[in-house]
Write a structure and sequence with these properties.
The protein is an alpha+beta fold. It is built from 4 helices and 6 strands, in the order H-H-E-H-E-E-E-E-E-H. Helix 2 packs antiparallel against helix 4.
């Protein structure tokens, strides 16, 4: 679901802003898109309501990232017993004019898959970003509940 639509509380909006800032630290030249999904019925039917989705666009094609745009999806699981929503993974996909070129998922093996891949240094930055986002969404909720 578009990040702009998921930001329904100050706490969640702050976490989304922090996730954006983490990405901009790693990739300072990107433009942020808090609404990467179109608002038509077909697109909305395919969108995961238990995710926060962010788009990032380079000013042109990034050779080091092997893409023009990135879609970041932070996946959540709502535990009805504890009434807590936990981030269970982050998926990042790189796109250019031909469509999706590669993807990496923390839910799977943390390996890049696709017809092209980012250079190793950029791949490491993306994986570090994923770790930081998981810590951001799960670490804060754990420390807040302990306080």
């Amino acid at each position: 679901m578009n990040a702009a639509e998921r930001a329904n509380s100050i706490a969640l909006a702050s976490q989304i802003a922090a996730a954006v800032n983490l990405f901009r630290v790693a990739f300072p030249d990107v433009r942020v898109d808090l609404k990467p999904w179109l608002n038509d019925a077909d697109t909305q039917a395919a969108v995961d309501p238990d995710s926060i989705d962010l788009g990032f666009h380079f000013p042109g094609y990034s050779r080091s990232c092997a893409c023009r745009s990135l879609l970041v999806q932070i996946r959540f699981f709502a535990d009805p017993v504890d009434d807590i929503q936990r981030a269970i993974g982050v998926e990042v996909a790189g796109y250019d004019h031909r469509g999706q070129q590669w993807r990496v998922s923390t839910i799977d093996a943390w390996q890049f898959e696709g017809s092209t891949q980012p250079k190793p240094e950029q791949g490491d930055r993306l994986k570090t970003y994923c770790r930081d986002v998981l810590e951001l969404f799960n670490g804060r909720s754990s420390s807040d509940s302990a306080a």
